[in-house]
Specification:
Largest interface: A-B, 24 and 25 residues
Number of strands of chain B: 11
Structural class of chain B: alpha/beta
Structural class of chain A: alpha/beta
Shape of chain B: elongated
Distance between the termini of chain A: 48 Å
CATH architecture of the largest domain in chain A: 2-Layer Sandwich
Number of helices of chain B: 8
Radius of gyration of chain A: 26 Å
Strand content of chain A: 15-25%
Shape of chain A: elongated
Distance between the termini of chain B: 24 Å
Helix content of chain A: 25-40%
Helix content of chain B: 25-40%
Order of helices and strands of chain A: HEEHEEHEEHEHHHHEHEEEEHEHEHE
Strand order of the largest sheet of chain B: 2-3-1-4-11-5
CATH class of the largest domain in chain A: Alpha Beta
Oligomer: heterodimer
Strand content of chain B: 25-35%
Number of strands of chain A: 15
Chain lengths: 384, 218
């Protein structure tokens, strides 16, 4: 029965699921529009070179690759930000800043599990050509507003400035291999091994303690005070200052209730360059959204320019939000005289209702039973 | 903020006893927790803690998916499964080590002599990665128990397994050729719970950390 199978990690979406998904998309698009973001559509597949120069070589194991007839290697898009960077550096470089958004499926060859498919949907936005805390705060604010707008309760957005960690790693006390080892352990979240490795390194105790505690420092502004070593490192202090400025700007937006400072948000260290953030709901063991500043991506496409953005997983949102927009009343129209039934259906549709014609010629009793089994349906049966 | 339940996945078997001893010292509820009991969930309304009794190999799955916030499991299982979880505290007990073991007559082999040989193991990922990192290729034969039997019956040339004292190896005329890595019990944490239930989890981590290091509670 291979005929009925779908490839692993892919799925059909039935009407009820699509309603939830479309509701999320409509609300996201409306919100993004209200901040001046315009929708773009990029190709479903790109040259592997484009993907790799943007997202790094490490992503290769997760790509769906195939060949074109000229021997070029193509990849289904594993994300959209890289494509937008390519698009903007080609077509929009004269009009900065740019506010762009997308709603798109992306493809990754990963082990499928709860909330992780091989084809999944993202809504995301990018603010290109704008550095600074007001740009960072704008997109973080939009992330908060989106989750609020969707009626999600008790969610949290954790923010961090990745420059703090990178500046500490660049501390001249550390050798190249030591840096790589620390970076790998932080990314794999193995804090036990991180502590063990740090204890064997001959570096300043303050630096040691700070690196060991960063992945677990979490809270309000007070967490900054718990890392005194940072004052000794100028680049790290500058990064802290940026984090504080963005935090203050978020205060002006009135969204601090949902914001945490979390120095453990250390995602894709080679890609992000500044403020980064992730969003979580206590009802799902996986993150809902993530993003941040990536000032070095655009230069891969020959146009150096600061940029920040985020993407939210629509499938994951749908798991925690079962709601959909109220549906219009649904009329089932039946009768013996099909001409009359048809005419009446047209009238109802013109009046803005949903009219479904009984094309099977069923009796009043049969149709009545159908209507009673459903919410918000009514029967209009036309006698001769 | 309202208090939230904390769910902890416990490993059944040899780790359970030392885990409950540690929990008792940490002031966590322990009353009635046994694996002989029919129930698999132990619920303490005060202080809002729930334990679930799992097979050790299932603990990372419960924690990764958020069905449990925290879990107690050996490093050997964590390494083999590579799940997306935070590894927070080395609890020190439950020591064992991954080894490559061979029949006594191969005692003097060097690693390079094992190229293209067959290895039986319950830990195919760890075994494969170890040999690949050495630049060697081996044929992995995945078994689910009594690994020592495989070389005895000619199913494999060697085994990769965890040992604590090495007695089982000796009884089956096997010798440890190389140690791959050490393993002890770890406290692991779901990446989202760590953030959404931080107020509950962080003090617990700190308490267990200080107990594991040999300090006193609080």
């Amino acid at each position: 029965m291979k005929k009925r199978e779908v490839p692993k990690g892919l799925r059909d979406m039935l009407p009820e699921e699509v309603k939830v998904k479309r509701n999320i998309e409509r609300k996201a698009a409306r919100l993004f529009n209200s901040y001046g973001y315009q929708e773009v559509i990029t190709p479903t597949f790109e040259f592997l070179e484009v993907i790799e120069s943007g997202a790094g070589k490490n992503i290769r194991g997760e790509l769906f690759l195939f060949l074109d007839r000229e021997g070029g290697i193509l990849s289904l898009r594993p994300e959209v930000t890289v494509s937008i960077a390519r698009l903007a550096s080609t077509h929009l470089r004269d009009e900065m800043p740019q506010r762009l958004f997308y709603i798109s499926n992306v493809f990754r060859h990963v082990q499928p599990h709860l909330a992780q498919y091989r084809e999944y949907w993202q809504a995301g936005l990018e603010l290109l050509g704008a550095p600074g805390p007001w740009a960072d705060a704008e997109i973080i604010n939009i992330a908060v507003r989106l989750l609020r707008e969707l009626g999600l309760s008790k969610f949290k957005i954790s923010i961090n400035q990745i420059g703090i960690f990178n500046a500490l790693l660049d501390d001249k006390a550390l050798s190249g291999p030591e840096r790589e080892q620390i970076r790998a352990l932080v990314e794999s979240k193995d804090l036990v091994e991180l502590n063990r490795v740090l204890s064997t390194m001959r570096i300043d105790d303050g630096l040691k303690e700070t690196i060991a505690s960063l992945p677990i420092l979490h809270g309000g502004l007070e967490v900054i005070k718990r890392i005194p070593y940072i004052e000794k490192n100028r680049a790290a202090s500058a990064a802290v200052e940026e984090l504080l400025q963005a935090y203050a700007a978020l205060g002006q937006y009135g969204v601090l209730d949902e914001i945490m400072i979390d120095l453990g948000v250390l995602r894709r260290l080679d890609y992000y360059t500044g403020l980064v953030f992730e969003g979580y709901s206590p009802d799902l063991g996986y993150g809902l959204l993530g993003g941040g500043r990536y000032d070095r991506l655009m230069e891969q496409f020959g146009f150096s320019c600061p940029a920040t953005g985020f993407a939210v997983g629509i499938d994951r949102l749908a798991l925690v939000l079962k709601c959909r927009e109220a549906e219009p009343h649904h009329c089932l129209v039946g009768g013996n005289n099909m001409d009359e039934v048809l005419k009446h259906c047209q009238e109802l549709r013109q009046a803005g209702l949903v009219a479904e014609m009984d094309v099977l010629g069923r009796s009043r009793e049969e149709l009545q039973a159908v209507v009673e089994s459903r919410d918000n349906w009514s029967l209009e049966y036309l006698d001769d | 903020m309202e208090q939230q339940y904390l769910t902890i996945a416990l490993s059944k078997g040899t780790l359970l006893k030392p885990t409950m001893e540690l929990f008792e010292r940490a002031g966590l509820p322990c009353e009635g927790v046994t694996e002989d009991s029919r129930s698999m969930v132990f619920d303490y309304e005060q202080p809002m803690i729930k334990y679930i009794m799992c097979r050790p190999t299932d603990v990372p799955t419960y924690v990764e998916q958020g069905a449990a916030d925290l879990g107690i499991v050996g490093k050997d299982v964590i390494v083999e499964q590579g799940k997306d979880i935070f590894e927070m505290v080395d609890l020190q007990y439950g020591y064992c080590r991954f080894v490559v073991a061979v029949p006594e007559e191969m005692e003097n082999f060097r690693l390079a002599d094992l190229n293209y040989k067959r290895v039986a193991t319950k830990f195919p990922v760890t075994a494969e990665r170890f040999f690949r990192d050495q630049g060697l290729q081996v044929e992995i034969i995945e078994l689910h128990g009594n690994i020592e039997l495989a070389p005895l019956m000619g199913l494999s040339d060697m085994i990769v397994d965890i040992v604590s004292t090495g007695r089982t190896l000796r009884e089956n005329n096997l010798v440890e050729l190389v140690k791959i890595m050490d393993s002890t019990t770890r406290l692991i944490c779901n990446r989202v719970s760590y953030r959404t239930k931080h107020e509950r989890i962080q003090p617990l981590i700190e308490r267990l950390q200080s107990l594991a290091k040999g300090g006193n509670s609080k």
